[in-house]
Amino acid sequence: MKPVRQKPAEKVWADLQTDLGLSDLHIGQFQKYAELLMARNQEINLTAIEDLSGIVRQHFIDSVALRDAIDLTTITSICDVGTGAGFPGLPLKILFPHLKVTLIEVTKKKQQFLTEVIQMLGLENVEICDVDWRTFLRTTQHEIDLFVTRAALDEVELTRAFRASCPYRNATIVYWVTDVWEPNPKVAGYVKQLVTYKLAKKIRKLAFLKA
Fold first, then answer.
1. Enclosing domain of residue 142
2. Residue 17 lies in a domain
3. With 70 as the cut, is the pLDDT of residue 3 above it?
4. How do 202-209 and 77-81 pair as beta strands?
5. Cis omega before residue 91 (within 30°)?
6. What is the DSSP letter of 2?
7. Of 16, 30, 116, 210, which residue is most buried, by most CB within 10 angstroms?
8. Enclosing H/E stretch for 208
9. Does 169 reside within a domain?
10. From CA 137, how far away is CA 140, in angstroms rounded?
11. Residue 142 burial by CB count (10 A; 0-12/13-18/19+): exposed, middle or buried?
């Protein structure tokens, strides 16, 4: 089998800047993020994607697809549920620095990586929360407009936020899903909008859930 030819890094970043209309500052931040991710991925299991093109496409571009579905300039605060290596929360923060971002991640090594990224990029108003989803809903009262998650939890678990006793019952949840995704019948009533987008040759969807 012939080895897959990798696109030169310069081309990867030039294409990203053109396709998304990014500033030199944004590109510089994404470059540093990717370099640190690939370096730390040798020590910590952060992502199964190891090539630069894949990281840019599957993590950066996929994360910021949200900006084409909703006007994020009108959003004040987001919470990334099960953020892992920071997706989609940190790419969104890079593009929309006004956002107050909460990252829910229970794995210590991933928390350490997130801290390193935040400090390296000089990101402000980013909080790492080390409790699980149920504990977060039960014990916190942050001001959050939008929850985001790239399928870190199933949709039934996510809708716990909409219970009458939960302080987040009025928030919206955006759930990254595949084009063939069908909501659990228990969740169908919460699906207010499905936005389709293209990621390379794949079709994906953003499911907007709200009580």
1. 62-209
2. no
3. no
4. unpaired
5. no
6. P
7. 30
8. strand 202-209
9. yes
10. 6
11. middle
What's the average model confidence in pLDDT over 34-44? 95
Please give the structure tokens belonging to residue 128: 């790492």
pLDDT at residue 4, rounded to an integer: 53
**Is 9 a domain residue?**
no
Q: Are strands 202-209 and 172-178 parallel, antiparallel or unpaired?
A: antiparallel
What secondary structure letter does DSSP report for 73?
Answer: G
Under 8 Å between Cβ of 169 and 211? yes
Q: How far is CA 5 from the centre of its chain?
A: 28
CATH code of the domain in which 90 resides: 3.40.50.150
Give the three-class secondary structure for 90: helix
User: Helix (H) and strand (E) counts for the chain?
Assistant: 8, 7
Residues 63, 92 contacting (CB under 8 angstroms): yes
Diameter of the chain measured on Cα atoms? 57
SS (H, E, C) 129-181: ECCCHHHHHHHCCCCCCEEEECCCCCHHHHHHHHCCCCCCCCCEEEEEEECCC
| pTM attached to this predicted model | 0.95
Q: Alpha-carbon distance 65 to 206, whole Å?
A: 9
pLDDT per position as a tens digit, 137-166: 999 999 999 999 997 899 999 999 999 999
Q: Are 55 and 38 in contact (CB under 8 A)?
A: yes
Does residue 15 lie within any of the structural domains?
Answer: no
Asked whether the beta carbons of 90 and 111 are under 8 A apart, the reply is: no
pLDDT at 149: 98
